[in-house]
Design brief:
91% helix, membrane
Length: 152
């Protein structure tokens, strides 16, 4: 159980912390300093390095969360509302990431390869909105995880 909790926390920290850094620190600096060709290329390469970590986080979060829920606590009927909320929000976040990865991110990569900066800018805007939504959901999950059993 300790290993599952540690892996679960590590995976969530990597994913949510990465989104926080990208959205709150890197995005405004890149937008203020870089012209579209450099900015879009930067983001394409940043995502290329960050998304494997997100994939690993998704796998670890699903595996450890399901294992703790079913093997340790005996199933969904045995856990509190906070676990149901965490799982629901986590699955929503994963679905948003899947869409982000297979739609706007792929289109961003193709736009950068073609040097189609207007199209790349549109895709980066879509990615920004999806990451913003996921960041809010991720921070909400952190709040629920840390205090949920006392709140619900």
């Amino acid at each position: 159980m300790s290993l599952a909790i540690a892996l679960h926390l590590l995976a969530s920290t990597i994913w949510v912390g990465g989104m926080f850094f990208a959205y709150m620190a890197l995005r405004p600096v890149a937008a203020g300093l870089l012209e579209p060709p450099s900015r879009l290329t930067l983001w394409a390469r940043v995502f290329e390095h960050f998304f494997p970590w997100v994939w690993a986080s998704v796998i670890v979060l699903l595996g450890s969360g399901l294992w703790m829920t079913f093997a340790v606590f005996g199933g969904m009927a045995s856990v509190g509302l906070h676990v149901h909320l965490m799982m629901t929000l986590g699955v929503v976040m994963m679905l948003i990431f899947l869409h982000l990865y297979f739609a706007p991110y792929r289109k961003l990569i193709r736009a950068v390869e073609r040097e189609d900066w207007p199209s790349g800018g549109e895709q980066l805007g879509r990615i920004r909105r999806l990451v913003g939504i996921n960041l809010i959901l991720g921070l909400l999950v952190v709040i629920i995880a840390s205090g949920g059993r006392y709140l619900f």
